[in-house]
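Q: Mind making up any chain with structure tokens?
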Amino acid sequence: MRRVVVTGMGIACPLGVGVEDVWRRLINSESGISAIQAFDTKDLPC
């Protein structure tokens, strides 16, 4: 078994990158969910 060292933690999600940014948006009840606009989704099953 190899040893590892965790030197910090972070987050990357639809609400932002970084703990402070994501936390602020969570506190403000913001959503990271939206409709897909980057490509046509009409043939995808829902």
Residues 19-27 form the longest helix (9 residues). The CA atoms of residues 6 and 19 lie 16 Å apart. Helices lie at 19-27.
